[in-house]
Amino acid sequence: MDTLDQNIELDSDKLKITNSIKQNLITSAKWAKFLAIIGFIFTGFLGIASLIMLVTALATGFGPLILMGLVYVVLTVVMLYPGLYLIRFAGSTQKAMNTNKQSEFDYGIQNLKSLFKFAGIYTIVLIGIYILFFLIAGFSEASRFF
C-alpha cells in the first residue's frame, strides 16, 4: 500500500482519502507552512531580544535582567519546536499529496501528532506554573495575618 488514491483501505475499516480530503490536506499544509514561517520570524525576534537583554544585563550587572534574559533564551529554544513540527507537516503532506507516497504522508501526520503533543505538554506546564504562582501568592498573603 505505497500510494494514496481515492480508495485506500486501512485494516478492516475502509478509510478513504477522497479528492475533497486531499484538497483539504493541501490547503491545511499551505496554512501550516505560512504559520510556521511566521512562527520562525517571531522566534527570531524573541532570540534577538533575549540576546540584547543578556548583553545589556551583563554590561550593567543588573541581576534580575540576566535571569529574565536567560528565561527568554529558553523560551526561544522551546518555541522553535512548534515551527519545526509545522514545517515538517506542511512539507511532507504537500509532497505526499503531489506524489502519492504513503511514507511522506505518514511522516507529515507524525509531525502533526508531535505538534499537538507539544502543545498539550506546554499547556500543562503553564497551568502548573500558574497554580504555583497562585499558591505562593496565597501563602504570602495568608502569612501577613499570622
Describe this structure in words.
With 146 residues, the chain is mainly α. The chain has four helices and no strands. Helix 3 (80-99) packs antiparallel against helix 4 (102-143). It starts with 18 loop residues before the first helix and ends with a helix.
Strand content: under 5%
Largest sheet: none
The average pLDDT is 89
> What is the end-to-end distance?
71 Å
Q: Ranges with pLDDT <50 over ≥5 residues?
A: none
- How many helical stretches? 4
User: What percentage of residues falls in helices of 4 or more residues?
Assistant: over 70%
Secondary structural class = mainly alpha
Q: What sequence of helices (H) and strands (E) makes up the elements?
A: HHHH
C-alpha Rg, in Å?
Answer: 22 Å
Q: Characteristics of this structure?
A:
4 helices, mainly alpha, 82% helix, 0% strand, 146 residues
Outline the fold blueprint.
Elements lengths: L18 H42 L2 H16 L1 H20 L2 H42 L3
Short description:
The protein is 82% helix and 0% strand. The protein is mainly α and 146 residues long. The model has no long low-confidence stretch (mean pLDDT 89).
